[in-house]
Amino acid sequence: MSETKSSPESQPTAREQTVKERGRKTAPARPSRARAAGRWSGGVLLLACAGALVAGSSLAGTGTAGRAVDVPYAEVPAGPLTGVCPEPLRLLSGNVAGTDAEFSAESSSARSVVNAVVLPAAGNPLPAASLASVKDGSVLLRMGGGTQVPLAGTRTAGVARDQQVSAATVLSADPKGALQPTAGAAMTYAATDGDLSGLAAANCQPPANDQWLVGARTTVGATAVLQLTNASQTAAAVDLELYGPAGPLDGPGTRGISVAPGQTRSVVLAGLAANQEALAVRVRSSGGPVSAVISQSLLRGLTPGGVELIQPTTAPRPNQVVGGVFIQNPEATRKLAAVDGYASVTPSLQVAVPGATDAVVNVRVFSAAGEVNLEGGGSYNAAAGTVTKLPLDSLPEGTYTLDISSDVSVAAAAVVTRGTDAGAGTDLAVASAGERVGSEHLAVLASANTVLSFAAPAGAAELSLAAVSADGSLQAEKILPLSAGSTTAVLPADLGTSPVAVLVRATGAPVYGAQVVTEGDRGLSVLVLPKGNAGANRVQVGVGN
Hints:
Elements: H1 33-42, E1 48-49, E2 52-53, E3 73-76, E4 81-85, E5 91-94, E6 102-104, E7 111-119, E8 129-133, E9 139-143, E10 158-164, E11 169-173, E12 182-191, E13 198-203, E14 210-216, E15 222-230, E16 236-244, E17 247-249, E18 257-259, E19 263-268, E20 279-287, E21 291-300, E22 303-310, E23 317-327, H2 330-337, E24 348-352, E25 359-367, E26 370-372, E27 379-382, E28 387-391, E29 398-418, E30 427-432, E31 441-444, E32 449-455, E33 461-469, E34 478-482, E35 487-490, E36 499-508, E37 512-519, E38 523-528, E39 537-540
Antiparallel strand pairs: 1-2, 3-39, 4-11, 5-6, 7-10, 7-12, 8-9, 8-11, 12-13, 14-20, 15-19, 15-21, 16-17, 16-18, 16-20, 21-22, 23-29, 24-28, 24-29, 25-26, 25-27, 25-29, 29-30, 31-36, 32-35, 32-37, 33-34, 33-36, 37-38
């Protein structure tokens, strides 16, 4: 991944940690919870050396020289790449306030499939990979694992298309020495009848110990179920922090939720935070890392209002970028919002302010034609400890990128609707903030109509895009210049024959991307571009008294 903006919580570098006085020993910095999560999900092995154990943090020298000591890095073998695919959406049928929810069968037309792609380094054989059940480890499919070496410079992917699933699954791909493979998967849910009619897609995400989800709701007719899946071999204890429009929400059932290895726990959020029109959830686990997804569905009377799989947004920071914000015809949306029970179809940006200081939030909006001014100027106040809904209903029809800046750290996501006929129903989508695009981002395409959306808010940039075809061949790269302050749409079909994934690289000013998925006249979902391949894993190793 290319360099990202620094966070207020960034760790000090090794050079910044110095020995203040001759002969005085300086204790090593204790790794943060966030760094521990990154090491787990990246599969980094801790390296013990002569009684010193240091991973992901800086260690000052313990000698007597009165100068800074640079601690050397050592490359270590990478662990398997892991991506957890969420459970398909299911109807809630009982135990509304519990964490062992009961479900009934979804609609008769519901279909849930996983697409997976594994891409080796140039000139390397395809690594062993599998898609397996989280619960019992049973393997649904295998890819790669052979020893045949391709021609120098050649990259041939392993591809799995439309693998049907009925529960949480995990994609695992073996590393090659110190390098993790480039791999990814996406789950797609679609139904044309029943209360869960609609389209929802989600990336299969690496587990983590600290995650934020923004954009849920628990008002009348809305069902939000938090899925906590532990695909590791270590038990996890999960604590939840919840924020609504009026402030933090705390109560019984938010602390110490036990998630055993191979288990998915379902937490009905209405039992913890009822009647919230905007809800943000922080998920922190100790022990094993977990994947966290909110299964969101809406029902307006007897008419389905849509489904979505809400995935984690980037951790709170002063700057956030939300891509793939789909806005339908605003006049049609306003007419629909005037119908009884349809007020929530109005598009909005939801901003969570987790700290104790109020925020001043500025929002810039970029369309295909350049920057668009929001009604009211795009500057808003957001109270500390709340989730604030900022209106987007003044925007013309199109797909946008939102550049959000604040004087304090915030988390953000946009909530939008597709569909204009109250009798036929609508669908909803939640576009989460994403990370800056670097190198080796593999966007696995959902099983529906897909458009990739990119933007470089701060300056000109250049994209390199290469399609992975259904036969596993990597097509020639196509170079796409991005002008500053505009949103560019890319059709995967324009990049190659029968594309199943797109390999993305970016240079220049920071670039952000998303995948906008549609089906029929109302199906809609948005996937943030997955994080890039981390490359070799390194730890700092120090030896001292």
